[in-house]
Amino acid sequence: MDQLLEILSNLHPDVDFEMEDRLIDDAILDSLDIVDLITAISDEFDVTITAKDIMPENFNSAEAMYDLIQRIRDEE
Amino acid sequence: MLFTSYSFIAFLAVLLVLYYLVPRRFQAPLLLAASCVFYLFAGPLFLIYIAVTTVTVYFAGLRIGDGLKAQSAYIKEHKADLSPEEKKAYKDSAKRVRTRWLVLALVINLGILAAVKYLNFAISNINGILSLFSSARLDFLSIALPLGISYYTLQSIGYLMDVYRGAYEPERKLWRFALFISFFPQLIQGPISRYSDLSPTLYAEHPFDMNSLLRGLERVLWGFFKKLVIADRIFIAVGEIIGDPAAYRGGFILFGMFLYTVELYADFTGGIDITIGVAQMLGIELRENFNRPYFSTSLKEYWRRWHISMCSWFRDYLFYPVSTSRWMSRFKKWNVSRFGQKVGKRIPVYAASFIVWFSTGLWHGASWNFIFWGLLNWAVLMISEELEPLYDRFRKAVPFSQSFGYKIFMMVRTFCLVAVMNLFDCYALLSDTLSCLGSIFIPSAWQGFSLGVLGLSAADYIVIIAGCALMLLVSILSVKGDVREQIAKKPYAVRFVLYFGLFIIILLMGVYGIGYDSGQFIYNRF
After folding, report:
1. pTM confidence score
2. Structural domain boundaries enclosing B486
3. ipTM value of the model?
């Protein structure tokens, strides 16, 4: 989780990612951020996130993203 | 059949009576029959196009959905026997079959769209190249554009890709799927609905509800007001300016540019108000397609608030698949090794974005001015993205940048930017657009500038100003809460007076009166 929070804070240092749970719904992260984020997550966690995983509920909070990473790891 | 025609009003009135009289289980089949009748008015031949899309996407969806189901069942059954490598090999092989169905349906449906919408554009470009070294020319084909094909093709592809991704089960009943594709209020200018949003409300049984009917009627009247009183009135002046790029230059272009931006808003949001209102009268809820777009403080925000269903379609079904694809990942690695981490990672994202904006431009129309318009949007968005750190520093250094006044300035700036880019919608020839745009800065081109020669009287200008003030007021009020909710709380008598007043205004001030076939909605032609 710490690794993920570091990636997120590098992307938007001004956002409190531990508290935010409407990152997509409130447009804090836009589509370009999402692609940057997926690239960073893929590099750091060695998982493949595809377009089908890009849903608001998977990216609205750091916790949701972490769950997604775990889920993909289990599937792979 | 135009929304703003007697025939549509008669069609809707008959449908509403039948819809609430028939047993509720027949409501959805009745809607399908009504959608077919609505489509027949455009031309019986066009029914074949929409039928081909419906049938091909329906069957491909079933094959893909069944494939996914069989895969899950097989893996569950052989969980203990399969090694991870065998499991992966099985999944890859099953996915290849599903992908073939997806590709087949995409090729058929995008092929139809390309043939009817883009073939003549391709021929004109080929002729342009041929003219450089030969006198040979290809003949243009006489193909009519089927009603709503740009919209229903995107909607059906979105459905198919969702099924392919396993987001939901495919629709098993053909008639229900046909209704999803052809639902008449949204057929000609969207919104481009998602199956997961629309299907629960579309297929549900709807008891008669006076409140829902009145709210729908209210929305329809508001849409008619925007279209007939404001947009069609503005069109007289805009049409005059656009119609003669040699005569109308300088001040006319500056004035016409802003006027067209207001017309586009009144026309398109008015059309969507009628769409959503008609659906609501039938008890069906459609998603909003606009969120006060001219209150945006940047172009990026504007594209989150304008034509939301189209933008989110291109994001979810083109931008994300392209930018997360394997070949884009390889392209990224190549760029990183060549240009370093920071620049190398940005290039693929900007390339994916380029593809999206090129496609968005092309979707709007088969001509270079639309493609240029799309790429201009892309360029401004990407430059803004690169300048973001600079904006950040500016915002931190200048306290005024947080004030309300500065926010208003940013809204006006974004509106002006959108107005300039909208000019590329207006002229078919890029050379005309650039020449007209340049004439704004040439003092001699302003000679003879007068608002009185554009076909509008002083009374027309007053109606336009008052209409715009009313649209602005409603938008401002709706920031704090839903204006329609407030109206819904009023007694029926007050509501009827309000609706009747709006109806009278439309009758008296609508440009052609409600009985005439007024101008086409701008977004119909896309």
Report:
1. 0.88
2. 206-286+417-526
3. 0.85
